[in-house]
Amino acid sequence: MATDPIAVEHRGRRLAAVTLDLRADPITLTAALVDIPSVSRDEAVIADLVERALREQTTGFEVLRHGNVVLARTDIGRPTRVILAGHLDTVPIADNLPSAFVDEAGERQLYGCGTVDMKSGDAVFLHLAATVAEPVHDLTLIFYDCEEISAKYNGLNHIERDLPDWLIGDLAILGEPSGGVIEAGCQGTLRVRLTTKGVRAHSARSWKGDNAIHRMAPVLQRLADYKAREVDIDGCVYREGLTAVRIGGGVAGNVIPDEAEVDVNFRFAPDRTVTQATEHVREVFDGLELDFELTDAAAGALPGLSAPAAKDLITVVGADSVRAKYGWTDVARFAARGIPAVNFGPGDPNLAHKRDEHVPVAQITEVAATLRTYLTERGSDSAEPSR
Known about the structure:
- The two termini are 33 Å apart.
- The longest helix has 17 residues, at 115-131.
- α1 (26-34) crosses α3, α3 runs parallel beside α10 and α8 (308-317) crosses α10 (361-376).
- By secondary structure, the chain is α+β, with helices and mostly antiparallel strands.
- 27% of the residues lie in helices and 28% in strands.
- An 8-stranded mixed β-sheet has the order 3-4-8-5-9-20-10-19, sandwiched between helices. Strands 15-17-11-18 form a 4-stranded antiparallel β-sheet. The protein has a 3-stranded antiparallel β-sheet with strand order 6-7-21.
- The protein has helices spanning 26-34, 44-57, 115-131, 155-162, 212-215, 217-225, 274-284, 308-317, 331-335, 361-376; strands at 6-10, 13-18, 62-66, 69-73, 81-87, 100-104, 107-111, 138-144, 171-174, 182-184, 188-197, 201-202, 230-233, 236-239, 241-249, 255-256, 259-268, 291-298, 322-324, 341-343, 358-360.
- It has 10 helices and 21 strands.
């Protein structure tokens, strides 16, 4: 039975009367979730509705609320446990609510904030929780807050700190948009600030100074000449990249600058640790006179596709529908705990956060059908229990 409709408003304007029916078509459920504004730090309403729907419309699940994180899990003695995790928050709304269905070139699209990132993935998980009666894996569902902002607010941090046993499993599937294919693991990322020093002088007597911006030239040349490494891990090819993302310097139009800086972002394959990646960046700029400051870093995630639970998913999806994840996602949090993790959800990740964010509804249907098969058909019998 669906939860009663709730009137949803945004900036004082009524958007819709929303009902969450977990047994409805996941396309319909996606539209309902999208019509609930849930910008980061404002997820209470959607968390309330998701919690209530799970309690009232599913059987066999222990349901727990922790802040604005909603958790649910079965305990039916299956040999393996699969985690289905998705974030409930979105980036700020850009005049793209309520949701709208549009037919384009013979394909039906659902437009609206969060359709891609990632309420369509959430809808699939919720629908399966209510409609898969006899899963071959025990299931853990995690719907969390604050993924789109600073990592310190991320709801998974709070679960890892306060309820770590909820993060135990044999495979974690994050419903991040992947176009309906498996995007395995993820790249690591780090940022460094390189600073060159000079001597300030009047530009009319430039020879009296030492131009820090000019000293940046060999740094930029090494970036331009950098050859990115490609690494094949479990059949997934990760391509690294080392790029300047910000540059600054200068005092005034008549002053030789005595300092310049460039921020460099290194996206590295998950076979490197953060320490190894940092040392590699140092080596790239070895011999240059500059200050080196590591400003941000996050480890990548190995795909872990050789794990039995992951192999079974690939069997269902098809080996030709597996690729490396370019970018960083929360799969890294699970990989750090020794749990293989993949991104698998509807929607083109290139449309995430855009004003015209939209998802082909057929992908929602396809991802739901694929995961239903995976959760109901017995695969490898070699998996060891996670508990």
